[in-house]
Design goal:
35% helix; alpha/beta; 247 residues
């Protein structure tokens, strides 16, 4: 709107999949975008005038989280952050498509999963609390349907880390409300990305809408949660599953 401050979103895991689609949606709406991921951004996106900064870090490492927070806050200066999207996550798989459960999953790998999927969102939310407070902003945590029901392909470490992130979303919603910051979660089901293999076709009959979702559909919900129409919504988790979570 004319005369309004240009809004800023900070987003993790931006180089592909849901994260990349979400960056594109915010860019279409004219937001300033600051991102991070383990990989560089796609070559065709480097000309995007709204995607102003991308920092390559590994958020499974505490030192990299701290570096990203420090560098991003230096970039922002006194400007506000209006949205933080905690999207980066990892879901380990075996070479033989075997599900990694509680008995066969390496405990060290469990810790790595929780570092990225749970502790990184916590530390980033704390690290950007001040600029989020200035912008009366919103935090959106990307959880998963796997955090609410046993999934045939998602491993136990991934599923429990996402369940923990759902609980963290509720805790944060209460505490961050004092800062004027809303905290919500989006729980995707089966979304068409490069990580989805042919085996996922067997899950479609379990989806009432009869198809997988798209990354653009997830991005749209994330964007809307950050807008004024949702200004009284906090502590909520929205399921983007085509109804799959109802079974």
């Amino acid at each position: 709107m004319p005369g309004e401050e240009r809004k800023t979103v900070v987003l993790t895991g931006a180089s592909r999949g849901i994260g990349h689609a979400t960056v594109q949606r915010f860019s279409q709406e004219g937001w300033r975008i600051v991102t991070c991921s383990r990989e560089a951004i796609p070559e065709e996106c480097k000309a995007d005038p709204n995607w102003t900064h991308h920092i390559m870090v590994d958020l499974a490492k505490t030192a990299d989280i701290e570096r990203f927070v420090e560098e991003a806050n230096a970039i922002l200066g006194d400007r506000a952050v209006h949205a933080l999207v905690n999207n980066a996550a990892v879901s380990p798989k075996t070479a033989f498509k075997e599900r990694l459960g509680c008995l066969n999953g390496d405990v060290a790998a469990w810790r790595e999963v929780f570092e990225l999927n749970f502790f990184a969102p916590l530390m980033l939310s704390r690290g950007f609390a001040k600029p989020l407070h200035r912008g009366k902003g919103t935090i959106v945590n990307i959880t998963s349907i796997a955090g609410h029901a046993i999934h045939p392909f998602a491993g136990s470490a991934y599923s429990t880390s996402k369940a923990a992130l759902s609980a963290l979303t509720r805790e944060m919603a209460v505490e961050f409300a004092a800062l004027g910051v809303r905290v919500n979660a989006v729980a995707p089901g089966e979304i068409e990305t490069a990580m989805v293999g042919p085996e996922y076709e067997a899950l479609i009959p379990r989806i009432p809408m009869g198809r997988m979702g798209t990354t653009e559909e997830v991005a749209g919900v994330v964007y809307q949660l950050c807008g004024r129409d949702f200004s009284y919504v906090t502590g909520t988790e929205i399921f983007l599953t085509g109804g799959q979570h109802l079974y």
